[in-house]
C-alpha cells in the first residue's frame, strides 16, 4: 500500500506528514490488503469568516471505484481526523458490499479481490 501526501503549503511539515501516515495506518490497518494506493491532499481555503484547512483522501481499492472523501476544519488536525474517519467508514462499507456479492467458492479460491 502506497500513501502519498500532496500539499503546497510550507506549514505542512514532516511532523504533520507522520501524523497523517499514522492516522491512516491505524484507521485502515485491517483493510490494507485490498488497498493499492492512498492520496492525501492538504490545502487551505479562504472562506468567510476564517480560513479553512481541507483534507481530501482518495483511496484506490483493487478492482473497485476509488473512495474519495473531503473534510474541512479550522485546523489541520481536525480536517485530517474527520477525513480519515470518513474514509475508513467508506472503505469498510464498500468492501462489505463487495463481500456480499462474492460466493463462498470464490472466497475459497481467493478470487474475491479481483
Automatic annotation (TrEMBL):
Q: Which Gene3D superfamilies match?
A: Ribosome hibernation promotion factor-like (3.30.160.100)
Record-given protein name: HPF/RaiA family ribosome-associated protein
Pfam families noted in UniProt: Ribosomal_S30AE (PF02482)
Amino acid at each position: 500500500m502506497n500513501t502519498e501526501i500532496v500539499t503546497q503549503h510550507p506549514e505542512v511539515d514532516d511532523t504533520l506528514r507522520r501524523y497523517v501516515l499514522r492516522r491512516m495506518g491505524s484507521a485502515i490497518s485491517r483493510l490494507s490488503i485490498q488497498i493499492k494506493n492512498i492520496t492525501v491532499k492538504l490545502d487551505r481555503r479562504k472562506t468567510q469568516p476564517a480560513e479553512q484547512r481541507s483534507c481530501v483522501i482518495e483511496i484506490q481499492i483493487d478492482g473497485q471505484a476509488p473512495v474519495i472523501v473531503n473534510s474541512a476544519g479550522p485546523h489541520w488536525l481536525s480536517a485530517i481526523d474527520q477525513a480519515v474517519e470518513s474514509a475508513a467508514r467508506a472503505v469498510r462499507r464498500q468492501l462489505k458490499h463487495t463481500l456480499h456479492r462474492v460466493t463462498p467458492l470464490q472466497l475459497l479460491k481467493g478470487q474475491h479481490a479481483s
